[in-house]
Amino acid sequence: MKIKIINKSRHKLPHYETLASAGMDLRANLDNPVVLKPLERAIIKTGLFIELPVGIEAQVRPRSGLAAKKGITVLNAPGTIDADYRGEIGVILVNLSNEDFTIEDGERIAQLIIAKHERAQWEEVSVLSETDRGAGGFGSTGVK
Questions:
Q1: Apex CA 31: angle with CA 73 and CA 76, to 5°?
Q2: How large is the C-alpha radius of gyration of the chain?
Q3: Residue 71: phi, psi to the nearest 5?
Q4: 46-70 per-position pLDDT tens digit
Q5: Does domain 4-116 fall into CATH 2.70.40.10?
Q6: 74, β-bridge pairs
Q7: Residue 125 in contact with residue 29, Cβ under 8 Å?
Q8: Which residues pair with 111 in a beta bridge?
């Protein structure tokens, strides 16, 4: 699938690191480093603008290494970029660690996943079909 992109950053385009990679790394596009204090959040710009086809979304997800090693994650994970959005891609990062974290220009801050989606049409009814689970919610299917 071809997706139109404008790159106003100083960095190369996002790309798949391996043949089986689902996501492409997004890089911070900063004039100056940004320090995230514990529990602080910030929108980090990427310098990228995309035009997605209708029926396709881009999902912004955390990088597992940043999350596991530094406690840095995407606050609204996954963030959704809709096909009609034409603004700059920004990543809402949050520092869930106990230490300051400095984001440098060019640092890989998130991953971008391209995915198809469906549009739902609601069908109002008065009764839903029965299942074994029924209305059981959070944790109702057991612990193990």
A1: 20
A2: 19
A3: 75, 25
A4: 999 999 999 999 999 999 999 999 9
A5: yes
A6: 93
A7: no
A8: 25, 61
Q: What is the residue extent of each domain of the chain?
A: 4-116
CA distance 107 to 47: 13
Continuous H helices in the chain: 64-70
Best CA proximity match to 40, nearest among 12, 75, 6: 75
Apex 118 CA angle, 114 and 121, nearest 5: 155
CA dihedral of residues 49, 51, 56, 60 (deg, nearest 10): 0
Q: What residue type is 85 in one-letter code? A: Y
Q: What is the pLDDT of residues 115-141, one digit of tens each?
A: 999 999 999 999 999 988 888 777 766
68: tokens are 């596991």
Ordered strands of the 72-74 beta sheet? 41-45, 90-95, 72-74
How big is the chain, counted in residues? 144
Which run of H or of E encompasses 41?
strand 41-45
Pairing type for strands 4-7 and 48-51 reads antiparallel
